Protein: PH domain-containing protein
Amino acid sequence: MNELLSPNERVEHAYKLIRDLMVFTNNRLILVDKQGVTGKKIEYHSIPYKSITHFSVETAGTFDLEAELKIWVSGNDVPIEKTFNKQLNIYKVQSVLAEYVAS
Structure:
């Protein structure tokens, strides 16, 4: 991960999703997207917080095993969608995201 960071950038929060990773730095959100059956192909999305126009959390109910976070980035009509399993509290992640987007 260090090779992705600028000299004055630091990781402040990181969350493991089902296969992917969300990394909150002091400058941007980095989405690590593992692709393919083996997960060897990895795509890195770098999103400055100021580019995030809005986001939403969707759950199916108390007993649902999955929840979804959608993030809209300026210039794109289609949101980035990330699926969370029950082990990770999606409300905690959206709270951290809200903190960075608001500042």
Observations:
- The first strand starts at residue 11 and ends at 16.
- The two ends are 24 Å apart (CA to CA).
